[in-house]
Structure formats: structure tokens, C-alpha cells
Amino acid sequence: MTTSKHGIDVLLEPSLNKSTAFTEDEKQLLGIVGLVPDVTESEDLQLSRVMLQLGHKTTDLDRYIYLANLLDHDETLFYRTIMSDPARFLPIVYDPTIGEVCLKFGHLYRQARGMYLSITRRGKVKEVLRNWPQKDVRFICVTDGGRILGLGDLGANGAGIPIGKLQLYTACAGVPPQYLLPMYLDAGTNNEQYLHDPLYLGLRKTRPSKEDLYSFVDEFVDAVQEVFPKCCIHFEDWTGVDAVHLLERYRDKYCIYNDDVQGTAGIVLAGMINAAKIKGTKLSDEKYLFLGAGSAGIGLANLLCSALVEEGLTLEQAQSKVYMFDINGLLESTRTDLVDFQQVYAHKHAPTRDFVAAIESIRPTTIIGASTIGGAFNQKVIESMSRINERPVILALSNPTEKAECTPEQAYTWSKGKAIYASGVQFPPVKFGGKTYLPGQANNFYIFPAIGMAIFATQASRVTDELFIEAARAVADQVPPDLLQQGLLYPPQSNILESEIQTAARVAKLVFDSGLARVSAPLTDMVSFIREHAYTPEYKQVVAEVAAAA
Ligand code: NAI
User: Fold this and answer.
1) Is the pTM of this model over 0.85?
2) Of all protein residues, whose CA lies closest to atom 28 belonging to ligand 1?
3) Mean pLDDT in each 10-residue stretch from start to end of the chain (550 residues)?
4) How many Å apart are CA 301 and CA 457, to the nearest integer?
5) Ligand 1 in contact with 443 (CB < 6 A)?
6) DSSP label at 513?
């Protein structure tokens, strides 16, 4: 790695800084002799110091702050730390800790990361984007803070989400961090608490009309095409309606996707594929009832229908297997409050606001919670599903933890061990009736980093639903049969990097086969091709530009 930086500036650049690991030659050439301790430590020794210091922290929030500070100083050591034990560190840099971080974002703020683009900059978005120091940006993860996790409108406090999300691209799938740009589009907030908080970091005004917001997003999306032409835009945590509408607005024109809609759908589809394997059925043998018809629910229903069509059903047959229930009850044909994308799931059925009554009448094999309502799958719901089904499939996807529609313990206990269960957050194994059950985490971090890696390596021009279905199949195929029998629907997190490289390779193959790649197909096998593009958290030799020229 060559740099024009010298002296203290080398230490202030997190992607160059090796803190206590510079060699004597590097210290001499970079002019940092005396600016760091006079040792050359190994990366393992550095990691052991980080672990020691983390061991003194008593809460995950404190561990998050420590790691954020580490990233501000030494990027390689940060990624080395979180990639050394993903099962331990992903819940700290992302969900569930990130929920608490966002709630307190303005209070915890120490240093800017990513970009903050306010609606007041309309007309000048391109100029603002050009302020970003990296010229080759491949991914922007963007939120307007409209619906952060299950926590609602957090406005600028939602800026923590794109930061964490993009760290997972690197930690889970090896996308090099220098190509990633977290972005907060500030169009105001309707959150009264933050509007009156002196430490709030966003615009102090309520959200604009939909037309105003969309014209701002239009300018942003167009500007990205010009300033970062190889960039894929990942939309994250917008309100359900905006998420679906903005995806439709751009998906056929640009390289964009929405993780809440498509990533969630991909990971839940992977779980459904494996639940069907456990039951010895096909996806098209099942009947599905959703609690929640927002961006996550609708995205999943749509992707599920595409997968059912791939199994041989017509689109109408596929849609007839999917029922949805939202805050106003069952989606059915007499409802007048539904938006366009919900109407295809509003079948002929008597109106009801009683979820258990809907279960008894529709007799689903699978219920899917994407409602943000913790505890909504109560004992009556689980017992009703267990009466109707030998192996009821219960997917409680809402997060953070307290928003899960039910816990695995509740699902296994109330179903007397019959449930096949997964949630949106990590829960520990459950012992019931002398058996140990392994609840899976239907977290989209199994999908979007792998999709990201495949897009990065192939420079894909579009992100289609078929890529997410292929990713779902690849994830499902990686659960060994013995773990499947213990109820585990997803691969273990401990090996997530290897798992995502395999998934990315399958997605990349489909990108090439579909003619969406903007690079030539590799001569090597696809897994090696992905590995060649993957970041490893190891220091590279740093060479001063002057010395290199000499
Ligand atoms: P959204 O706000 O777009 O939709 C929520 C839906 O739940 C709406 O249809 C609403 O009518 C319905 N709802 C609200 N209260 C209800 C009630 N009392 N009874 C029945 N339905 C009710 O939210 P979105 O984006 O669809 O997300 C939903 C949840 O899914 C969130 O908690 C989010 O964190 C979670 N999620 C989980 C992911 C994962 O990886 N497991 C990924 C993305 C989202």
C-alpha cells in the first residue's frame, strides 16, 4: 500500500494505521519513529490486548463504543477483532446493540462517519457527494431514519444503521471497507422527543410531503449515478410504504435494492426452504399467514410467490397461498384502506380483527411475524397452530429482541416441542422435554453481505429478485442434516465468512448467466473468483510515495 501521507498523518488515517505493529523500516520511511511505542507487535498480540480491554467493559453498549473508537483509529484491527468471533461481535456492532445506539445516537456521538445529506442541500447534492474522499464508491447504504428496526421514526438517530450495516458487508462477506459509504438522508423527523432534544443532530422540522421527499431522493439517486457510476444503492429502514415505492421507482433503472424488502425476504425464504425439508414437503405444499403487511411482510410475500412460480405455480395460484393480517385485521377483499401492493393478498374472506380466528379459518401451515409487536404470537396463537399442524412453522421476525412476536421457549413450550421456529434476533438454545432445540436467527445478514460481495466482484448492473432466491437456496443448502434435525434453519454464525463466500459465488454465477455482469466471467471457479476479491483483516506493507518513486 503506497501513501503520500507522512508522520502523524499516517497514524491519523485508520486505513493506514497499524498502531503498535509498524516495522522499523516503515517507521523510518513514514517518519513516525518516536510517535508510536518502540516495539513491533504481532496482530495476534494486538488482538489479545483488545480482548483484554473489552473484557473490562460491562455492557454491550460500552463494547460498541470501544469498538467504534477502535475503528476510528485502526480499521484493520477493528475488522480483525469482529471477524475473529462473528457470533460474539455481530450482536455488538449490529442488532440488538445498534437499536440502543440509535436511540441514544445524538448523545453518544463522538466523530462523523459516512455522510449526512440534508434536504436543505437540494440542487447541490452532486457537489456534496463530491466531498467524500473516496472516488470509487461501490455501495451506499442509505436511510432517512423513517422506520429504524422496530423502533419507529428516529430521524438522524437512525444514522447508526447504515454505518453498522456496511460493517457487516466486510465482516460477513469480505467486501473491502474503502468502497463503502454510509449515508443519512435528512428530511426531518416526526419524533417529538428528538425535535426537542438539544443534542439531536438532524434537521429540527417535521417530515415533508411525499412529493418533496421523493424529489429529494430522485436528485440523490441521479447524483450517485454521476459521481459514483459503479455504485449500488442499498435502501435501509425507510417506512414500509416508502421502501416499497422507492424500490419500484428505481429497481429497473439503476443498480439498487432494499434490504428490508428483498434481504429479509431472502433470509426468510431460506428458512422456509429448510422448514419444508424438515417436514418433507415443498414450498408450494404450504399455506402462509403473515402478521404485518409492511415492507418486510410484503417483500417476503412477493419473493415467496416468485419462488412458488419457479416451483411451477402460476402467479395467481402462488398469491392464493399467502394471507396477510395487519393492524386493521385480515387483508380481505372488502378492505378499503389497502395500498396498491397489498391488494393482491386481499382474498375473499369475512372481515376479522382476531388473529386466532383467522388461523382457525385459513388453516395456515406457517405464520410469519413482521409486525413490530412483541408477544403478538401468544399462547392461543401457538396452540391453535399446533392443533392444526403436526409441525407448525413459526417465524417471529420483528426486532429488536423485545419486539419478537414470541420467544423460542414460548414456541417450543406452547407447541409441546412441535414448532419449527426462527426469530429475527439471536436466542440461546432451548431445552424442552429432554431435547435441545436450536432456534435459528432469520437475520438478513446471511444474505445482503453475500449479495453485496457478488455485486462487488461482478459489477452487476441490476439487483434482481432471482439473485435473492438463489442466495436463499445457497444459504439453505449450507445447513448440515444433523443440525436441520435439531430444528436449525440457518448455518452457524461462527463460520459466517466462509458461508457467505459460498453464497456469493452462487449469486455471482447467476449474475454472469443472466448477462448482468459488467466484468468478464472468470477463468477460475466462482468460489476462487470471489475469494480473490475478498478483504482480509491483515496489515499490508505501507510504503511512502516518495520512497516508492525513488
Ligand atoms: P412496517 O412498519 O413497514 O410494517 C409493520 C406492519 O405491521 C404493518 O403492516 C402494520 O399494519 C402491522 N402491524 C402493526 N401493529 C400491528 C398489530 N398490532 N397487529 C397486526 N399487525 C400490526 O415495518 P417492516 O419494515 O415491515 O418491519 C417489520 C418488523 O420486521 C420490524 O420489527 C423489523 O425490525 C423486522 N425486520 C426484521 C428483519 C430480520 O432480519 N429479521 C429485517 C427487516 C425487518
Assistant:
1) yes
2) 370
3) 92 96 96 97 98 97 98 98 94 92 96 97 98 97 94 96 97 98 98 97 97 98 98 96 94 96 93 95 96 92 95 96 98 96 96 98 97 96 98 92 95 96 91 92 92 98 96 96 90 90 98 97 95 96 66
4) 29
5) yes
6) H
